[in-house]
Amino acid sequence: MIVLGVDTAIRKTGYAVIDFRAGGSFKILDCGIIKNAATLPHSQCLRRLAGGMRELVKLFHPEAASIETAFAARNIRTAMILSLARGAVITALTEEQIPVYEYSPKTAKRAATGIGDAQKQQVATVFAALASLDVSEIPDDATDALALAFCHASLVVRNNSTCRLPSPI
What we know:
Layout: E1 2-7, E2 12-20, E3 26-35, H1 42-60, E4 64-68, H2 76-95, E5 100-103, H3 105-113, H4 120-130, H5 140-157
Parallel strand pairs: 1-4, 4-5
Antiparallel strand pairs: 1-2, 2-3
Helix pairs in contact: 1-2, 3-5, 4-5
């Protein structure tokens, strides 16, 4: 099962594509960042995020995508901008018929590392060890995306009736 994990932000959106197989083995197909310059208007950042998602879908043909649940920020402007980025990503993926699932950051990190409050470096270290990569090959902004993709794929592949898969958003 190929899953795309996305950690949305307006300036640096992390993404990860994994191929997860029955039995728990997986391969990281790609992980990286969609960067938008600080000088770019938000409308152009959103266009680039949507375009980046469409490109990833065309390259890897994921069966599903997972993103972080929305959270309440202290700064309403920050929350609104993050929501715009989420909306651009969700729209682009659903236009491509990719179901999108959401998980809390703690749930994703717990699935990947066993620790819900794991730091980005801890997540990167676990994935580097499991995938035989140099930890420096995993960008910080892609670590949460890796955890999100792994979280969803492991729930789908796991043959356990006590695990309930959430509905797509």
